[in-house]
Amino acid sequence: MAANSIRERIIQNVVDSLEEISAIAHVARRKLGFSELSSIPQTQMPFAGVIAGLPSGTLKKSGRKAGNVDKIISEMNIEIVVYGQDNTNPDQTISSLVDDIWAKLYADCQRGGLAIGTSLNTGLETGIFDPYYAFTITCVVGYIHSTGGI
Q1: What's the CA angle centered on 123, arms 130 and 102, to 5 degrees?
Q2: What is the domain count for the chain?
Q3: How many CB atoms lie within 10 A of CB 38?
Q4: What global pTM score does this model have?
Q5: In Å, how far are 20, 69, 94, 103, 118 from 3, measured between CA atoms?
Q6: Is 150 part of any domain?
Q7: Do the domain assignments include residue 115?
Q8: CA distance 123 to 120
Q9: DSSP labels for 97-125?
Q10: Residue 108, in any domain of the structure
Q11: pLDDT at position 137, please?
């Protein structure tokens, strides 16, 4: 069942890691539209939205039986979009938050034993539109699963 799949457990590990960062007020598995920002209470800012893609896999054939697939090595992109408010120095706030997220997600590259590796890619641009800011980090997680599930 997908609710307890390796994919779901990895995503939950990333969510749990983000929730441990004291500078992030709220983490949810959804991406906000810019029109929604004004409806988010200030107490929930910075808000981290976590959206995961589907795994893209490479089949590993079994040497014992022709055409049999033993394992699949997949990569999954988990997009983390952080929204916040800062009228004074949003660039410095973004830098501080990225630093916290970077350190936390690289602290356990194996995502609690579920993954073979984690890498982070930052977005090319940050969005600063007074009084809000937004930035994106893509967490790329490599993991092994079977043909029985993702």
Answers
A1: 100
A2: 1
A3: 8
A4: 0.89
A5: 22, 24, 33, 28, 22
A6: no
A7: yes
A8: 10
A9: HHHHHHHHHHTTTTGGGT-SEEEEEE-S-
A10: yes
A11: 96
SS3 31: coil
**Peptide linkage before 46 cis (omega within 30 of 0):** yes
Which residue range forms the structural domain that includes residue 49? Answer: 2-145
Segment-wise mean pLDDT, segments of 10 residues, the chain, 150 residues? 86 98 97 85 94 84 65 94 92 95 97 96 81 93 88
Q: Are strands 47-52 and 26-28 parallel, antiparallel or unpaired?
A: parallel
Q: Cβ(76)–Cβ(10) under 8 Å?
A: yes
Q: Are 80 and 50 in contact (CB under 8 A)?
A: yes
Residue 125 burial by Cβ neighbours in a 10 Å radius (0-12, 13-18, 19+): exposed
The CATH number assigned to the domain holding 26 equals 3.30.70
Residue 32 · residue 81 · CB < 8 Å: yes
Within a domain: 95: yes
- What pLDDT does residue 39 have? 87
* Residue whose pair of structure tokens reads 């937004």 in the numeric block: 134
